Amino acid sequence: MRLKKGQQLKEHASEVIEKLRQLYPDAHCELNFTNALELLVATILSAQCTDKRVNIVTRDLFRRLKTAADYAAIPQEELEVAIKSTGFFRSKSKSLRSMAQDLVQKFGGKVPPSMEELTSLAGVGRKTANVVLGNAFNINAGIVVDTHVRRLAQRLGLTRQEDPDKIEIELMRLVPQNDWTNFSHWLIWHGRRCCYSQRPDCAHCGLATICPSFDEYSKLSSGGVAKKASEEKKRSAPVARQRKQAA
Fold this sequence. Notes:
- The protein is an all-alpha fold.
- The protein is built from 13 helices and no strands.
- It has helices at residues 6-23, 36-45, 51-64, 68-73, 76-83, 89-107, 115-118, 126-136, 147-155, 164-174, 180-193, 214-217, 223-246.
- The longest helix is centred in the last third of the chain and has 24 residues, at 223-246.
- The protein starts with 5 loop residues before the first helix and ends with a helix.
């Protein structure tokens, strides 16, 4: 994969953004929540766990625990049982209770709407804060870099970085701030529905014609269909060049 430079990379990123916008106009956070506290709890539970499983667990959990004080007061063992199926339930229980205690002591039980305040809470890092700010408060403070965003940003030639914090910095330079939250959703949806980790479905990918990793990863797809997509990419290349020249 050849990473583009300067203005070329900005133009490439713009193409990626527009195609993703068209492919996933309804993309959104797939964790179920009705307020900022519920989203904060769900995001902490989602570590090393699927959103589907988290939503099953929180369906009952949110009926029982309504406030930060409820999470701070629930016994550790009882919370462990309630969230056990999400994995790492002991550490997650400790994080939830400590986070809730901080909310009660520092912010009167309310989830604060700023990066600095959110990351001051026990167990809350920048990625979790970005999820809450972007989806509960509609504040584009950064870009959520999970495993899907990391994988796709690299495959799409938007970064060579491995560290999530460095990837976020590079993406924030390429993506307009108004799209930061949506950009994460678009990549996550594409990663879950098409650009899989082991066998990406390049043959049916809406980004195939502009993806610099297509030739490499399409080999993992079924032969005939992948070949058809490759031919389509070649046919579209002269058209794309003509458009740029005309512009």
